[in-house]
Design goal:
Layout (H helix, E strand, L loop, with lengths): L9 H6 L2 H6 L9 E9 L2 E4 L14 E2 L10 E2 L4 E3 L11 E5 L3 H5 L4 E6 L2 E7 L8
Antiparallel strand pairs: 1-2, 1-6, 2-5, 3-6, 4-5, 7-8
Amino acid sequence: AAEDLTELQAGSYALMDARYRRVRPELENALFVLATVLHADGPRAVLDVGVKGCGGEFGPPELAGLALQPEGRRLSEEHFLVGGLSAGLREGQKLRLVPGHGCTTCNLYDRLHLVDGEEVLEVWPIEASGWRR
């Protein structure tokens, strides 16, 4: 019953990271990390976001907009290596990544940008993110 609840974690569910998406596939993701392709070679690419920019404890991020994720996705500290792409990518291309775990990803940033297409609607501070101040 509602009176038995003492805590609520609404953020993860509202933003839908890749792990929650597997639980509730009818809901859309709203949390993304923007990455840039640094190197592309046929079915392989190297992106500029690693575990220092996208929490990886629940697995690597997913590439937004792909129903079937390519195999060979691997995070290092600074890079995301993707293999098995059916369509080639080009250097400089921007991609949206869906973090495997939103909580530890958001903690890496000071701000969250709310966007609609290409337009930034608002910028929200992420309070106490990493306690870097």
